[in-house]
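> forwarded from #structure-qc
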């Protein structure tokens, strides 16, 4: 069964009032149960035959998706510092240097928080206010988008 077809079936079920569907096509079986409570996990179960010529490692038949999982984590208190440009995030001036800031560190207004490289230009991102770094949301040398959250800083 085609993955695109499975996604379309899941989309149709999620938009309908149907709570449970089982589909069998040859050796392929899929069973979808939808629960009415939005915060409850959604369960999907699929059984796929393994090819006789190329045995694959056994994989679990049931996967659980928790749509509210990201919202259940407590968010650190503070203000978000966002990227003003698209580029590459660097936590230090060079690979051998210590990071500009670490979690739990107090920063002053105007202090450099990180560098974002854009088109071979190193742009220092400075704190707009004083406070304590609660969380660093980006890993070193990773790409960042415009307006992407970089830090959470709790103002003094």
């Amino acid at each position: 069964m085609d993955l695109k077809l499975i996604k379309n079936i899941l989309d149709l079920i999620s938009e309908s009032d149907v709570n449970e569907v089982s589909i069998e096509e040859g050796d392929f079986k899929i069973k979808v149960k939808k629960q009415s409570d939005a915060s409850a996990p959604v369960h999907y179960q699929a059984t796929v035959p393994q090819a006789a010529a190329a045995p694959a490692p056994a994989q679990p038949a049931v996967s659980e998706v928790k749509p509210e999982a990201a919202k259940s984590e407590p968010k650190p208190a503070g203000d978000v510092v966002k990227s003003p440009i698209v580029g590459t995030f660097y936590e230090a001036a060079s690979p051998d240097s210590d990071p500009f800031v670490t979690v739990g560190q107090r920063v002053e207004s105007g202090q450099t928080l990180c560098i974002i490289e854009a088109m071979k230009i190193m742009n220092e991102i400075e704190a707009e206010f004083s406070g304590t770094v609660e969380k660093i949301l980006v890993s070193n040398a990773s790409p960042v988008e415009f307006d992407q959250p970089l830090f959470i800083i709790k103002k003094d």
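QC bot note: The longest strand covers residues 112-118. The longest helix spans residues 3-15.
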